[in-house]
Amino acid sequence: MERKYETRQAIRPAFSVFIFDAICYNDIMKRLKLYLETSVWNFFFADDAPEKKEITHAFFSRVKNGSYDIYISDVVLEEVSKAPDAKRSLLVDLIKEYSPLRLTLNEEISELAQKYLAEGILPENKIEDALHASAATVYEMDALISWNLKHLSNFKKMEMINGINLKEGYLKRLELITPMEVSDEEI
C-alpha cells in the first residue's frame, strides 16, 4: 500500500504549540499523525510522576476516541523489550490495546539519525532518540510526542533537528512536543 504524505507547510507563529491542533489540520480536517516515543508509553504507568501520568492518560483517551493516528517504530519495541519483565508485559499490552501503526526503519532513517549525531544535536550515545526523530521526519509525521524533555521535546532541539531536516531536503516541519502540548483540551 502506497502512502501519500502531505508536504504543505503551515505558517507558524512563535510558540505555536498552544494552537498546534488548529494549524496542523488540512482542508478536510484530517487527524494528526503522531509518532509516540517510548517515554509516552512508559508514563502511562508512572506512579512516581502523577501529574505526567494523568496527562498521559488524558492523551490516550483522546487517542481512543479517534482524535489522532498514532505510530511507533521498531526502536520503541526494542526499548520496551529491555524493560524488566513486569513492566515489559504492561507496556506490550498497552501497545497492543492502542494498536499504533508500525513504521519500518530503513537506510534513509539511519542516515538522517547519524546526521543529527554528527552535528552534535543529540549525544552520540542517544542513537535511539535520533532514530525516533528521523523516523518521524522521513514518514512525515505531524509531531513526535515524548516526555523526554532533555533530548527531544524542547524548543532548541526541535529547531536544530528541523534545521538539519531542511538542509537534507525534508520540507515538512516536525513538532517535538509532550502529550500535554498536543491536546486542545485543558488537562
Give, in spatial order, the strands making up the sheet with the most strands: 3-2-1-4-5
For the largest beta-sheet, the strand count, sense and barrel status come to:
5 strands, parallel
- Shape summary: globular
* CATH-defined architecture: 3-Layer(aba) Sandwich
Strand content: 5-15%
CATH homologous superfamily identity: 5'-nuclease
Low-pLDDT stretches are 1-27
Number of helices: 9
Structural class, judged by helices and strands? Answer: alpha/beta
CATH topology: Rossmann fold
In brief:
The protein is 47% helix and 11% strand. With 187 residues, it is of the alpha/beta class.
Any overview of this molecule?
The chain has 187 residues and is α/β, with parallel strands linked by helices. The protein has one domain: 5'-nuclease (Rossmann fold). It has 9 helices and 5 strands, in the order αβααβααβααβαβα. The chain has a 5-stranded parallel sheet, with helices on both faces. α6 crosses α7. The longest helix has 15 residues, at 50-64. The N and C termini lie far apart (37 Å).
